[in-house]
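Bit of a strange request maybe. I'm writing a small parser for C-alpha cell strings and I need a real example to test against, not something I typed by hand. Could someone generate the C-alpha cells for this chain?
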Amino acid sequence: MAVFFLERGDLVFPPVDTAEPDGLLALTRDLTPERIIAAYARGIFPWYEQDGLFFWYSPHPRMVLFPTELRVHKSMRSIFNQNKFCYTLDTAFEQVIEGCAHSLRKSQSGTWISPRFIEVYTALHREGLAHSVEVWQGNALVGGLYGISLGRVFFGESMFTRISNASKAGFIALVRALEQSGFDLVDCQQASAHLKSLGGRTISRAEFAQLLARNDLEATLRGRWRIEGGKIVATH
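Reply from user aminoacidic:
Good idea to test on real output. This should exercise your parser:
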C-alpha cells in the first residue's frame, strides 16, 4: 500500500485501513494542534519526526485499556495503601513532557519527542485538550505521563519514571479517576507486557475505529483537570 503525503493545512487523512502493515499511514511536513486533533479522532497519531517529516500511524492491532478492566496487583495496592506517592493533574505539564522526552527506553538510542512535539502538545495543554499526571514524592516530581482527551477517550502518549513504580502508580491513579468520570477507553497505542499486566488488551483497527466513531458524539471535558471526590473536573 502507498504512504500518503499530506500538504500543509490538509487535515483530511486517508482511510486507516490503507496503512502499511506496520501502521504507517501518512507523512507531513507540519505538526499542528489542528492536525493532531483531526488525527486522534480517527485513530491516527504522530510517532516521530525525521529529516523534517512527521510520520503518522494507525497500528493494527491496537492496545487499549477499558477502565473497568484495570488490574492492580498486590504490590501496587501496597504502594497505594502506604500512600507512597501523591498525584496531581495538570500542575506541571511542561515538566512531565520534558521528563518523557529525556527518558530513554532500553530499545531506543534517542527520543521521538522533538522540540516541535513539546511545543505543539504544550499548546494543546493550554487549550485544555492535553493533560498530564504528576507523581510526587515530597516536593520531587518522580514520574508522570501525558496524553490527549477527546470525548470519553483518553489517548495516552508517553510516561516517565525516576524511581521504581512511579509512572505505573500514576497511570493507575489516572485510570481510576477516568472510570469514575465516565470515560470509556484509554488508548495505549502499541502492545507491551507492562500494559497487558495492567489489564490492557489488543483490538482490531476496525473495532477501534468503531469505538471512535461513537465517541464523536460525546462531549469533551476541556480545561485544566483536577480530581475531586475521585472524579475529574475541569476548570475553564
